[in-house]
C-alpha cells in the first residue's frame, strides 16, 4: 500500500493496531504486539499515544515483545531500544510494565543462549504474536536479522553488518561506538506472527524495498521471506515506492 506521505500511512497503521486491541478487549483477550524501533514507527507510536490521551484507548490487555536490542547495552543508555520504547510509547500509556518485553542487553554472555530460548518461549506462552510491526534496514534486515539469516532462525545474538553500524553511527557519535552485536528475534519468530506490517519511508529505502518485494526470496535479503507470509502488508510512502 502506497501512501502520499508517512503521516497518513502511520495513522492507518495505528488505527489497525487500535482496532485489534479493542476487538481483543471486547472478547476478554490479551493482544500480543511485536514492536519495532528506529525512525519508521515513531509516528505510529505518537498516534497511539494521542488515541490513549484523547480517545481513551487502553493498553491494559496488551503484551508487547520488542524485536531487538544492541548487545551489550545498558537500559539507561539513551541509545538503547529500552530507552527508545519508554520515551516514545510506554511512558505515555497505561500498559502494565510486567507486560513489556524487550531483549535485555545486560545478560551475561554465557547466559544468552538460555535467555533467547526463554524469550521465544515467553512469546509462545503469551499466545503468539497477533501483530508484528516492522521497519527495514538498508541491508534488508528485519529486526536485526542481517543478510545470511536463515528462514528458520529464532531469537539469538547476531553480528551487525557494517552498513547497519554505519547507519547507526550518528546516534552513537561515530561508528566506533556502535555495538558490534545485537539480540534479535529470528526470521521464524517474525514469520509466525498472525499479521505483519512493514513500513518504509523515504528514497533511501527505495532500492531495498524493490529487492524485498520484487526480488528473489533469499537469506541475502532476509525481508524477502515476508513475500510468503499470508497476511503481510508493506506500507510505503511515495518515495520508498519509487523503484517499484
Ligand atoms: C534498526 C532496527 C530495525 C529497523 C532499522 C531501520 O536497525 N533494528 O528494526 O527497522 O533500524 O531503521 P529506520 O526505521 O530508522 O530506518
Automatic annotation (TrEMBL):
Q: Where is the Glucosamine/galactosamine-6-phosphate isomerase domain?
A: 11-233
The name this protein carries in UniProt is Glucosamine-6-phosphate deaminase
Q: Tell me the part of the parent protein that is shown.
A: 30 to 273 of 645
Amino acid at each position: 500500500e502506497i501512501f502520499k506521505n508517512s503521516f497518513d500511512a502511520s495513522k492507518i497503521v495505528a488505527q489497525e493496531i487500535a482496532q485489534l486491541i479493542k476487538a481483543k478487549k471486547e472478547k476478554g483477550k490479551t493482544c500480543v504486539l511485536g514492536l519495532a524501533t528506529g525512525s519508521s514507527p515513531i509516528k505510529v507510536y505518537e498516534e497511539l499515544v494521542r488515541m490513549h490521551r484523547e480517545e481513551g484507548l487502553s493498553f491494559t490487555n496488551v503484551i508487547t515483545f520488542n524485536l531487538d536490542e544492541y548487545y551489550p547495552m545498558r537500559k539507561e543508555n539513551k541509545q538503547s531500544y529500552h530507552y527508545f520504547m519508554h520515551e516514545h510509547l510506554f511512558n505515555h500509556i497505561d500498559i502494565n510494565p510486567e507486560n513489556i518485553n524487550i531483549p535485555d542487553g545486560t545478560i551475561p554472555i554465557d547466559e544468552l543462549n538460555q535467555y533467547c530460548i526463554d524469550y521465544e518461549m515467553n512469546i509462545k506462552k503469551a499466545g503468539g504474536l497477533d501483530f508484528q510491526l516492522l521497519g527495514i534496514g538498508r541491508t534488508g534486515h528485519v529486526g536485526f536479522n542481517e543478510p545470511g539469516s536463515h528462514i528458520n532462525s529464532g531469537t539469538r545474538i547476531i553480528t551487525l553488518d557494517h552498513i547497519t553500524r554505519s547507519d547507526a553511527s550518528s546516534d552513537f557519535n561515530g561508528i566506533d561506538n556502535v555495538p558490534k552485536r545485537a539480540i534479535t528475534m529470528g526470521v521464524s519468530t517474525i514469520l509466525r506472527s498472525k499479521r505483519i506490517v512493514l513500513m518504509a519511508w523515504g528514497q533511501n529505502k527505495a532500492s531495498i524495498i524493490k529487492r524485498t518485494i520484487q526480488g528473489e526470496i533469499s537469506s541475502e535479503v532476509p525481508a524477502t521471506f515476508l513475500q510468503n507470509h499470508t497476511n503481510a502488508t508493506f506500507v510505503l510512502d511515495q518515495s520508498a515506492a519509487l523503484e517499484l
